[in-house]
Amino acid sequence: MAGETMSPNAGAPPRPQPGLIELFLLFSQLGLSSFGGGVSAWMHRTFVEQRGWLPHTEFAAAMALSRIMPGANVVNLAVIIGQRLRGAAGACAAAAGLLVLPGLAIVAVAVAYRQFAATPMLSAALEGAAAAAAGLIIATGIRMGRHLVGASGGTSEHALRRFAAAAIIATVFLLVGVLRLHMVVTVLCLAPLSIALVFLSRPSTDPGDVGG
User: Fold this and answer.
1) CA 91 to CA 78: how far, in whole Å?
2) How high does pLDDT run on average in the chain?
3) Rg, Å, the chain Cα set
4) pTM, to two decimals
5) Confidence band (pLDDT; 50, 70, 90) for 208?
6) Does the N-terminal or the C-terminal CB of the chain have fewer CB atoms within 10 Å?
7) Burial level of 207, CB count in 10 A (0-12/13-18/19+)?
């Protein structure tokens, strides 16, 4: 009808609205169960794979942003996810859930650790948990990379975008994982290149579809 305007997000599915208590409990569970690290991998599994509250691309962008912001990476990621799902209140609920109950648990574990720090069995258990967390992070990175590289269609523009995504992923792995360069410097240098590659490889729009 004449005079009606469409919202820019009219064709996008509505963003889920989980409750604040639900967010708090979910992040508390993640913080309490993620022994040895790997909290970001569990966040991906919980919010992207299991519940579908965030798309893969948005989670990947949130993870990259959380790593170049000051502060703890997992707390930054929790704040970003909470904000995306429920605004400022969701960010507070996510951060509180990730910090309050796990923080109390850490205090109790630290007290117990002083008593049993020299026990060989405890040291072996902690090393095993750390190795499992590293494997979980690697597996999550591979799944996210496969989705980002293989999500496009079969046109030449999509093929170029897949190649560009694979090149950026490989470059970041080489610079950070092998050469041990600083994450912030690497992301700040590669982000403009990545944005330019996506802009140049975007599919062309059919003029006949404009306004139709």
Assistant:
1) 7
2) 78
3) 21
4) 0.64
5) very low
6) N
7) exposed
pLDDT in tens, 164-186: 778 888 888 888 888 888 877 88
Contacts with 23 (C-beta within 8 Å, 6 or more apart), sequence order: 82, 85, 86, 90, 93, 94, 97
d(CA 193, CA 187): 10
The token duo for 59 is: 């989670």
Beta-carbon-side half-sphere exposure of residue 166 (alpha carbons within 13 Å): 11
Q: Is 77 exposed, middle or buried (0-12, 13-18, 19+ CB in 10 A)?
A: buried
> Residue 11: pLDDT above 70?
no
123-140 pLDDT, tens per residue?
A: 777 777 777 777 777 777
Give the Cα-Cα-Cα angle 204, 205, 209 (nearest 5 degrees).
Answer: 160
Q: Which tokens sit at 153?
A: 């269609």
Other beta carbons less than 10 A from residue 43's beta carbon: 25
pLDDT at 7: 42
Contacts of 93 (CB under 8 A, 6+ apart): 20, 21, 23, 24, 27, 82, 86
Tokens of 53: 């509250």
Q: Which residue ranges make up each domain of the chain? A: 16-119
